[in-house]
Amino acid sequence: MRFGVAIGILHLDFFIHGARSLKEKRRVVKSLISQIRNKFNCSIAETDYLDLWQRVHITVCVVSNESKFTNTQLNEIAKYASNHAEAEMLDYRIEML
Prior knowledge:
By secondary structure, the chain is α+β, with helices and mostly antiparallel strands. The chain has one domain (6-96): TT1725-like (Alpha-Beta Plaits). It has helices at 22-40, 67-82, and strands spanning 6-15, 43-48, 55-64, 88-96. The chain is elongated and about 45 Å long. The two termini are 20 Å apart.
């Protein structure tokens, strides 16, 4: 039996201009993560800059049986995330495994 699995990882870096505390940052991050998770049905978590008020690193994972679908989905997520009102996307990177 042959299994075709395409795993894609998306790294997103953001700057939150209005955050003056970790509480404000968490509110923005929670909103962003919830919106992405609900719209795209993916695994997502904040993975770096946990103690910095204005920086956010989020990692997204998509698993599919087609690499084209996985790559397209990750690009759509990056585009969607770049339009968030309270977080400015600084950079993103896609890894295919």
